[in-house]
Amino acid sequence: MKTPNEMTIVEAARALRARALTVRELWDACAAAAHAKNPELRAFLEIFDADDAAITTAQKRIDAGDPSLLCGIPLALKDNILTEGKTASAGSKMLENYHATYDATVVKKLRNAGALFLGRTNMDEFAMGSSTEHSAFGAAKNPHDISRVPGGSSGGSAAAVAANLSIAALGSDTGGSVRQPAAHTGIVGLKPTYGAVSRSGLIAMGSSLDQIGPLTKSVEDAHLLYEAVRGIDPLDSTTIPDGLYPPRDVSQNVRIGVPRHLLHDGIDADILIAFNAALAALASAGHTLVDVELPTSAYALAAYYVIMPAEVSTNLARLDGIRYGHAARGETLLEDYVRSRTEGFGEEARRRVLLGTFVLSSGYIDAYYRKADAARAVLRREYGAAFAKADVIAFPTTPSPAFRFGEKSDPVSMYLEDIFTVTANLTGMPAISVPLQTVLRDGKQLPIGIHFTAPHQAEGVLFALGGAVEKVR
Description:
Elements: H1 9-17, H2 23-41, E1 44-47, H3 52-63, E2 74-78, H4 105-112, E3 116-121, H5 155-162, E4 168-173, H6 179-185, E5 188-191, E6 211-216, H7 219-229, E7 255-258, H8 269-284, E8 288-291, H9 300-315, H10 333-344, H11 347-360, H12 365-386, E9 392-396, H13 411-415, H14 422-427, E10 431-441, E11 444-453, H15 459-472
Parallel strand pairs: 2-3, 2-4, 7-8, 7-9
Antiparallel strand pairs: 1-3, 4-6, 5-6, 5-10, 9-11, 10-11
Helix pairs in contact: 7-15, 9-11, 9-12
């Protein structure tokens, strides 16, 4: 029998309404697990004290028949999502003393739904990384093998959910930062359509790429959490209304596009076997496999690692030790800037700021940034053409299972972790990672995931197909 902290959102909501469990008991079970396991996993940077008033209010709402399934559910929040009065460091020493003065829009929506907040989770500094090794406060660890990374940059949120420290969590996804750690820890991760979820109160990394998304124990939970946080927000002009894009039917027969020309070198053999087996099982269940061509996808990672650092350089310019962020003083104003940013930012953050400044410089913006942006436009058109004959595009979420700490010390090898996930951010389309079977590495069974990308605002197709994967795996 599951303990309360092991439940999904839906299971916990049912138990609360059946009077088999109280909100206090659910909170205490999650908090106890978090306090017990966090010293080893370092999933949380801070575990919040119980908010007795919020717990009491949630229980009264449930007792009165409140229909919100999130009422009384303890959730974790990535450390770059603002919660009023709480530290929001974005995993960086630059903001280690910053306390949020307001709630992010997603936090407001969840509060209104009656959700409770368990703590802020570990992450790569300013979401720059694929392993959570770049957190200024120590790396999070994978619950399936603590010698391995949980993925990143939302690795703390993924580890908290996978280890049953939290019922579910929110992360942010700029190039796969929700989906990749979901695959590495054996849970579900969704990157919504760009603009579906407000970014107000999310500390920006790449403004045209970032999107808040859920990390959950089931596709049903991901759907529930997505519905709770999505919607137009006057505080974020990039949010979009329902029906902006043509609707897609959620039918029994989903056409699954498979770009086989991209599934060759660089993918572990057992992951490719599991991926093909999952596709065969979906075909046996009545879905259709369709070959598609996405030639520009081979260059998507290169385009991403030009566009993203450019936006990083712009967004982090404000953190200079004068207006915002860690402040160190030298003998001149220039020394103030240099010392503040050198001490405040970690190595990976400095690398991306410098790269972004370079590709935006007057001598190189045409050669790099504008060409990458043109490639992004071509990629959007190619996906649009592919979606004329397919409802989703399928890939393995990652080319390999979770790797050991320090194994990808070369930055390029780390960047290749995002090879199958960055296209959804470049195109703005929604994508989901759903757990498959496990693969054996060094005597440990490690999770892997299957990844589906859908047209804009076609999250319903992703939830339907994700649910089908859960049935056949």
